[in-house]
Write a structure and sequence with these properties.
The structure holds 2 protein chains of 2 kinds. Chain A is α/β, with parallel strands linked by helices. Chain A is built from 5 helices and 7 strands; from the N terminus they run E-H-E-E-E-E-E-H-H-H-H-E. Helix content of chain B is 39%, strand content 19%. Classes of the chains: A alpha/beta, B alpha/beta. Chains A and B meet through helix 1 and strand 2 of A and strand 8 and helix 10 of B.
C-alpha cells in the first residue's frame, strides 16, 4: 500500500546469520536517515540448516505494517544451494534485484528480467581470515555494491559494532572484499543503485 | 541513545533500567528471549537482582508474591498457557495488593497448540483485577515497563504490560533507550509501608469473615467485601493516577501523552476503527489510504484495557457515525470482549454510533491490509447489513 517502503528479503539457512546480516543493514540504514526500519524473522519454526527468510523494510518514515514481505524490491541469498529448494524470487517486483553468494559467474544466472548481482562471498570471507562458512558479513558488501542503498563505510561501521569482540576487523574486511568483487548482469555493472 | 533490537529486549532493558530486584520466570515462547536477556544482565552484573529459575509459571508468580511481600521490586514474564497456569496466583497477587510487574508476550492458547500471536491469553484474564497496559511498538514497550513499576507501587496494584507475540516480541525496530539517571529520578525506590520483616512480625492476608470484625486492637476492621470494594475503587482511581504518571514521564523523557487511548486522525472522523495492540498501527496505513479516497476515518488504540477507560472512550467516540472494533480474542459463546465493553460504555451517551465487531488473526493468521480495507469499506458503506454477532475476517472455510 505504501510506496515509500523498500522491502528486502533475506534468504539463508538456520544458523547462517541472515538475521544478523539484516540487523546490521537495519542499523546502518537507520543511521543513514531511514527513520523507519523494521526487521522481522520467520516466526516460530526455525531449525539449523533449514531454509529461513527474514523481512527487512526500510523507509524515511515510521513503518506501521509488521507483516512479512510478499513483494520484495530486493532479495539477498546467502547460499546459492538454496536456489534448488526455495523460489527466492517469489513475488519479486519487476526489475527487482537478486544479490547472490555463489562461486559461479553471474552469466550463469537468469531470473526473468531481474537484475542479478553475484559475489563469491564464501571464498572472500576465507580470504579475509574468517573460518569457512561465515558469510553474513561478506554478503553485506555485495548487497552494498549492488543496491547502492547504504554507504559501504556506514555498513562496515555497523558490522564492526555488531561483531564487537567477534573478529570485527575480519568481518569488516570480508565485506570490503565482497564489495570490490561483486559482478552484475547490467551492461555497465552498476545494478539498480548505480553505486559504483 | 537509539538502538535496534527486538521487542523482548526492549522489555528486558526497561526492567533493567527499573532496577528490578527479584526476577522469577519459566520459559515459554515467545516470551523466553526476554527473561534470557534478564538472566544475562544479572549474570554480567549489569542488574543487581536475584534471578530465580522456577519449575513452572505458578511458582514464578508465587516467588514474585513472596519477594514483593518482603519489600522487593519483583518481575516476571510469560505467555499463553503459562499465564493461565499462574492464574490462581494472579488473583492472590492483586488481592494482596502487591506491586508486581509482569510482561506478557501475547500468544494464542492451546488446545490445539499454537505458538503464534493473538490476545486471548491476557483478555481472558481481564477480570482478575490486574492493571493491563498494551504496547504498539518497542518504544511503548520499554516506556510502559518503566511507567508500570511506578504505577504499580503508587496504587499497590500489579500491572501487566502486554505486547503482541512475534509481531513485536521478535521483530526488530529502533527505539530510544532512556538514560539510567532519568529513570532513577522518575522511578523512586520501592519502599512499602507494610512488608514481611523479621524485626516486626505480622500476619498477612489471613482469613476474613463475611462481616466486619474487631482487629487485635479492638478497631473494627473491614471484611472481605469491603476489601474487595476498596480494590475496585482504587483500580478506578488508577486511571487518573496513570494519566498523571504519564504526564510526568513526558516531562522527563519527552514521550507519551496517550496513556489510556491513542487516537490517529480521529478528530474530524465519521468512522473510527478500534483495537488493542500493534494492529492499531497497521490500521493507520489503511486509514491513510481511505482518507485519500475521502472517507473520513480514523483509528484508536486502547492502551489501557483494565481499568477500562470508559469515559475517555465515550469522549472519543460519541457523536461519530460508526465504530468498528477489531479483536484478536473473543468471549467464546458471546462476542468480542472489547466490543462488548465499548458498546456498554456508549449506552449512556445520547448520540450512539453504529458499532461493528470483527474477529481476526487468531493463532497468528496473517492479517492482510486488503482484508482490513475490505472490512472497513463494508462497515462504512453498508452498516445496516451488520448484525450484533461478530464477523470473522480471513476464514478459509
Amino acid at each position: 500500500m505504501r510506496k515509500d517502503i523498500i522491502e528486502i528479503r533475506w534468504h539463508g539457512r538456520g544458523g547462517q546469520g541472515a538475521i544478523t546480516a539484516a540487523k546490521i543493514v537495519a542499523n546502518a540504514a537507520f543511521v543513514s536517515g531511514y527513520k523507519g526500519v523494521v526487521m522481522a524473522p520467520t516466526f516460530g519454526t526455525e531449525r539449523r540448516g533449514a531454509p529461513v527468510f527474514t523481512s527487512l523494510k526500510i523507509s524515511k518514515e515510521k513503518i506501521y505494517d509488521l507483516s512479512p514481505i510478499t513483494t520484495p524490491d530486493m532479495v539477498v541469498v546467502l547460499d546459492h544451494t538454496l536456489l534448488e529448494e526455495v523460489n527466492v524470487v517469489a513475488g519479486l517486483k519487476e526489475k527487482g534485484l537478486v544479490v547472490l553468494n555463489s562461486p559461479r559467474p553471474v552469466s550463469e544466472y537468469t531470473f526473468d528480467g531481474m537484475t542479478v548481482a553475484v559475489s563469491d562471498v564464501s571464498k572472500h570471507a576465507v580470504e579475509a581470515g574468517l573460518p569457512p562458512g561465515i558469510v553474513n558479513s561478506g554478503i553485506i558488501g555485495a548487497f552494498a555494491k549492488a543496491s547502492g542503498l547504504v554507504d559501504i563505510d556506514v555498513l562496515v561501521q555497523a558490522i564492526e559494532n555488531e561483531f564487537s569482540g567477534k573478529k570485527p576487523e575480519k568481518n569488516a574486511r570480508s565485506a570490503r572484499i565482497a564489495y570490490e568483487n561483486t559482478a552484475d548482469n547490467t551492461a555497465d555493472n552498476t545494478a539498480i543503485g548505480g553505486n559504483k | 541513545m537509539h538502538i535496534i533490537e527486538s521487542g523482548n529486549v526492549a522489555a528486558a532493558t526497561g526492567v533493567k533500567l527499573s532496577r528490578a530486584q527479584v526476577i522469577a520466570a519459566y520459559p515459554i515462547t515467545p516470551q523466553t528471549p526476554l527473561t534470557e536477556k534478564l538472566s544475562e544482565f544479572v549474570e554480567s552484573g549489569e542488574l543487581a537482582a536475584e534471578y530465580i529459575p522456577v519449575e513452572s509459571e505458578h511458582s514464578a508468580m508465587a516467588v514474585c508474591i513472596a519477594a514483593s511481600t518482603a519489600g522487593a521490586r519483583a518481575f516476571t514474564a510469560t505467555s499463553a498457557n503459562g499465564l493461565l497456569y499462574m492464574s490462581e496466583q494472579l488473583h492472590w497477587a492483586v488481592g494482596a495488593r502487591l506491586p508486581i510487574v509482569m510482561c506478557v508476550a501475547n500468544r494464542g492458547i492451546g488446545a490445539p497448540w499454537t505458538v503464534w500471536n493473538d490476545q486471548q491469553d491476557t483478555i481472558s484474564q481481564r477480570d482478575v483485577g490486574w492493571i493491563q497496559i498494551y504496547a504498539n511498538d518497542h518504544q511503548q514497550i520499554i516506556d510502559a515497563v518503566i511507567k508500570a513499576f511506578r504505577l504499580a507501587q503508587t496504587v499497590s496494584i500489579p500491572v501487566m504490560v502486554c505486547y503482541d507475540g512475534y509481531l513485536l516480541s521478535h521483530t526488530y525496530m529502533p527505539f530510544e533507550e532512556p538514560a539510567q539517571s532519568s529513570v532513577d529520578s522518575f522511578l523512586p525506590t520501592f519502599a512499602p509501608t507494610h512488608f514481611l520483616d523479621p524485626e516486626n512480625p505480622g500476619n498477612f492476608n489471613t482469613v476474613t469473615l463475611p462481616d466486619v470484625r474487631p482487629d487485635v486492637e479492638g478497631v473494627i476492621a473491614p471484611g472481605y467485601i469491603e476489601i474487595r470494594h476498596t480494590l475496585h475503587q482504587d483500580l478506578r482511581a488508577a486511571l487518573d493516577t496513570f494519566v498523571e504518571i504519564d504526564r510526568e514521564f513526558k516531562k522527563e523523557f519527552g514521550r507519551g501523552g496517550n496513556p489510556l487511548i491513542e487516537e490517529y486522525r480521529c478528530e474530524d472522523a465519521d468512522f473510527v476503527a478500534v483495537c488493542i495492540g500493534s494492529l492499531s498501527y497497521q490500521l493507520r496505513d489503511v486509514v491513510d489510504g481511505m482518507r485519500e479516497n475521502d472517507v473520513k476515518i480514523g483509528v484508536m488504540g486502547v492502551q489501557m484495557y483494565r481499568p477500562f477507560p470508559d469515559e475517555a472512550i465515550v469522549r472519543a467516540l460519541a457523536g461519530k457515525k460508526g465504530v468498528i472494533v477489531f479483536e484478536k480474542a473473543l468471549s467464546y459463546g458471546n462476542q468480542g470482549a472489547l466490543y462488548a465493553d465499548i458498546k456498554s460504555a456508549l449506552y449512556k451517551s445520547a448520540e450512539r454510533p453504529f458499532i461493528h465487531n470483527y474477529i481476526l488473526g487468531l493463532g497468528g493468521r496473517e492479517i492482510k491490509t486488503q482484508h482490513l480495507l475490505d472490512a472497513l469499506t463494508a462497515s462504512c458503506t453498508s452498516p445496516d447489513t451488520f448484525e450484533d454477532a461478530p464477523r470473522w475476517i480471513g476464514l478459509k472455510l
